[in-house]
Design a protein that fits this description.
By secondary structure, this protein is an all-beta fold. It is built from no helices and nine strands.
């Protein structure tokens, strides 16, 4: 069983593909992209983003002002 922590939601933008990950408004560096689960517009995202340090990158993303990050979670341990 693993544990997780909720990270701050990201405000998506049509002009950005890279976003800073934060927890409690403090920059946060996850273990890896494999340890991140997020949902946009009710769809869980998988394989369409990468993580470098405290940045999450959606290279193919073309978000609009109506797109919404529902949640972003960091899996701390997996067993």
């Amino acid at each position: 069983m693993g544990s997780y922590e909720a990270l701050d939601n990201i405000t998506l933008s049509s002009s950005k593909t890279t976003y800073t990950i934060t927890k409690g408004k403090v920059v946060f560096e996850p273990i890896s992209a494999d340890n991140i689960i997020c949902a946009i517009n009710g769809v869980v995202q998988s394989g369409n983003f990468s993580v470098i340090g405290s940045k999450i990158i959606f290279p193919e993303a073309a978000f609009s002002s109506s797109d919404k990050m529902d949640y972003i979670l960091h899996l701390r341990t997996v067993s």
